[in-house]
Design a protein that fits this description.
single chain, 450 residues, Rossmann fold, 3 domains, 4-stranded parallel sheet, 3-stranded parallel sheet, 12% strand, disordered N terminus
Length: 450
């Protein structure tokens, strides 16, 4: 354990927590990426303009291919900053990324650069004092940075992996209405306009999961060991058993259905990201009243073009798509594959795309051919660092953090202690008092059309 001087303080959420940070800063202040511009402008104005202290950012990313000359320049700036009592403004990702880059350089046999970077790391841990803004988030137990190492490989189970999961989701769709009736207050359920589309279904409690896990109970109730299964099933079958067991017994399915679209996860629309798989959302977004999951026109055209040019029996596949829809929802002109003309723009837009946009089988087809084979990859090795490395016992200087909450203090690293200063012990009462003010007894909302 390191010194109990490593501490965390709570500040009221309606006050500027950066203000008490400024007189304490010696050299380095890690902040979140979202707070970086605000902190930089504030520090540059108050410490740079008034006290003539230089504020300079420090960035470390994996795409930065440092050489010896650049590392020596960075080290020189750090040493000058220590002599002049300057401030380094950085983020947790940049600090941890620099640590992993050091290991990665040695892995690539670039020992001279790696040795220079390691020298900077040791120097920073010895001479720099850290002040953490929003320390409860920075030191959160779930925060970590991972670098994948090596070449990409197919995931276990390959294509059967996501086909199996898609089959389970079809069973969820089948039983979702009954589950919502049994747990009306603990399930968010809205039926889809078409029977072929997946409904809005979200678990608001863990209680309905007991009923949901009947989907493949036989796999969970088996008492056979893996060694016993090896003699009866192929390797790929055993991998699929483990995938299904992980979805249910490890509650991945429960965790997934407790997430909210565009709040906890979503698709990154940025063209530079170039990914179609959903990613976690770090902050809340505005949620539509009835969000629907479907394919856009370009993605649908990819599906039909693949069906037409690459499939040996497109008729039978298309018949499955049609059978998954209600007969009344499919125009007569496209009820058979022979009637589909992909060159007819009007038919594509008015009939084909509008009919199959939310069809689960078509969506699964798109993911099977255009998403998962390209993006569902795994790496044999990983370099991992966590928030605890920001408060490592190797750091000789004390670490101070500021936060607007104190309910996560039990999740802090074991060598970090939260100190409730006498003058700040009334913070919780102030927050409650502010919430109970008469001006907070009502609210206004904007209409969806605004």
């Amino acid at each position: 354990m390191i010194s109990f001087a490593d501490s965390k303080f709570e500040s009221s959420f309606n006050q500027n927590k950066d203000e008490p940070c400024k007189p304490l800063i010696d050299d380095c202040k890690p902040v979140f990426k979202s707070l970086f511009p605000t902190n930089y402008q504030s520090l540059r104005y108050k410490l740079g303009g008034l006290l003539n202290r230089r504020i300079f950012p420090f960035t470390g990313r994996r795409d930065m291919n440092f050489n010896n000359k650049q590392i020596n320049q960075i080290f020189k700036h750090f040493q000058q900053g220590l002599h002049n009592c300057d401030i380094i403004l950085t983020s947790p990702e940049d600090i941890l990324s620099f640590d992993l880059l050091t290991i990665d350089k040695c892995r690539k046999n670039e020992f001279n650069v790696g040795r220079s970077m390691l020298t900077i790391q040791r120097w920073l841990k010895k001479y720099i004092r850290d002040v953490l803004d929003e320390s409860d988030e920075i030191l959160h137990v779930k925060y970590q940075l991972t670098y994948t190492v090596g070449s990409q490989e197919q995931v276990d189970g390959r294509t059967e992996r996501w086909k199996t999961i898609q089959k389970i989701l079809e069973l969820v769709k089948k039983h979702s209405a009954n589950i919502s009736k049994c747990f009306s207050e603990k399930v968010c359920y809205k039926p889809s306009k078409r029977n072929s589309a997946f409904p809005q279904f979200r678990l608001q409690s863990h209680e309905p999961y007991a009923l949901l896990s009947i989907i493949l109970t036989i796999i969970l109730e088996t008492h056979s060991s893996v060694e016993h299964l090896i003699n009866k099933f192929t390797c790929i079958d055993i991998q699929l058993f483990l995938i299904v067991r992980g979805l249910l017994s490890l509650k991945f399915l429960l965790i997934t259905f407790r997430k909210r679209y565009r709040v906890n996860y979503g698709v990154n629309p940025s063209l530079s990201f170039n990914r179609l798989m959903a990613v976690p959302f770090p902050a809340k977004d505005v949620v539509a009243d009835r969000p629907e999951f479907g394919l856009n026109n370009s993605q649908l055209f990819q599906c039909f073009n693949c069906l037409n040019e690459e499939e040996t029996d497109p008729t039978s596949i298309y018949d499955q798509w049609v059978l998954y829809e209600d007969e009344k929802d499919v125009p007569k002109s496209i009820q058979q594959w022979i009637g589909v003309n992909l060159k007819d723009y009007q038919q594509r837009i008015d009939h084909l795309f509008s009919t199959f946009r939310y069809n689960m089988i078509v969506i699964n087809y798109f993911r099977h051919y255009f998403v998962f084979p390209r993006e569902a990859k795994q790496f044999l090795y990983k370099l991992v660092t966590s928030a605890w490395d920001l408060s490592s016992s190797l750091r000789s200087k004390i670490i101070t953090g500021f936060s607007g909450t104190n309910d996560t203090q039990l999740l802090l690293p074991v060598h970090i202690r939260q100190y409730d200063l006498p003058e700040l012990q009334k913070t919780d009462a102030i927050v409650v008092n502010n919430l109970l003010k008469s001006k907070n007894e009502n609210y206004q909302f904007l209409y969806p059309s605004m």
